């Protein structure tokens, strides 16, 4: 079962696949209605067992403030109430549903425009540090490859130092 933080990281990845550059999950805690920020969009993620209601969508709408150029996206694990669907359509919120395998499904017409009508397959993340697993695996693979070549030891040390620096920055933000 995914944690709320893993869900947020996964949905940030989904936003990136939909073309929202720089999508990143915000640190865990009071979020004032925003879990993910990206260039051109903000999002809220709910990993609840009950359908999302209109008040949650209203918080996202209010959190956008005067930034009317920002798209609003809402990701729900358990779907939406009828009132939430109606409100989302009235104010232009892109409504999505996601599952435990990080598959993202468009729920309304606004969302279908972002996905091309299909399913977006997001990946989970390394929730402890907020880094995609593929990124960590790539750095490790680079270190192993450099073992074969001269100065491989120096390359591995640089890779470790690079990862330590990134993880320190992420921990400071939390």
Commentary on this structure:
The protein has 174 residues and is of the alpha+beta class. It is 46% helix and 19% strand. The strands form 2 sheets. It has a 7-stranded mixed beta sheet, with helices on both faces. Strands 8-9 form a two-stranded antiparallel sheet. A hairpin with a 2-residue loop joins β2 (36-38) and β3. α2 (54-64) runs parallel beside α3 and α5 packs antiparallel against α6 (152-173). The chain starts with a helix and ends with a helix. Residues 126-142 and 166-174 have low confidence and may be disordered.
Give the helix level as a range of percent.
40-55%
Structural class per helix/strand content?
alpha+beta
C-alpha Rg (nearest Å): 18 Å
> Beta-strand percentage?
15-25%
Main pleated sheet = 7 strands, mixed
Q: Would you tell me which CATH topology of the domain at 4-121 applies?
A: Trna Endonuclease, Chain: A, domain 1
Instruction: Spell the H/E element sequence.
Output: HEEEHEHEEHEEEHH
Overall shape: globular
Question: Which CATH architecture of the domain at 4-121 would you pick?
Answer: 3-Layer(aba) Sandwich
Neighbour order of strands in the largest sheet: 1-2-3-4-5-6-7
Number of contiguous helices? 6
Number of strand elements: 9
Q: Extract low-pLDDT stretches.
A: 126-142, 166-174
The averaged pLDDT comes out at 79
* Distance separating the two termini: 23 Å
CATH top level class name of the domain at 4-121: Alpha Beta
Transmembrane segments: 147-166
GO molecular function: DNA binding; endonuclease activity
Protein name: Restriction endonuclease
Organism: Rhodococcoides kyotonense
């Amino acid at each position: 079962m995914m944690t709320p933080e893993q869900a947020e990281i996964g949905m940030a990845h989904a936003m990136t696949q939909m073309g929202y550059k720089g999508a990143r999950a915000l640190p865990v805690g009071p979020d004032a209605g925003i879990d993910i920020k990206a260039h051109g969009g903000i999002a809220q993620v709910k990993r609840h067992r009950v359908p999302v209601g209109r008040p949650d969508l209203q918080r996202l709408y209010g959190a956008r403030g005067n930034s009317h150029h920002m798209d609003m996206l809402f990701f729900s694990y358990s779907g939406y109430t009828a009132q939430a669907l109606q409100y989302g359509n009235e104010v232009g919120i892109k409504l999505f549903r996601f599952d435990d395998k990080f598959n993202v499904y468009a729920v309304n017409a606004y969302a279908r425009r972002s996905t091309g009508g299909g399913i977006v397959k997001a990946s989970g993340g390394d929730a402890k540090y907020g880094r995609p697993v593929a990124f960590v695996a790539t750095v490790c693979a680079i270190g192993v490859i450099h073992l074969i070549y001269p100065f491989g030891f120096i390359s591995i040390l640089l890779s470790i130092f690079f990862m330590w620096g990134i993880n320190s920055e992420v921990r400071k933000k939390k």
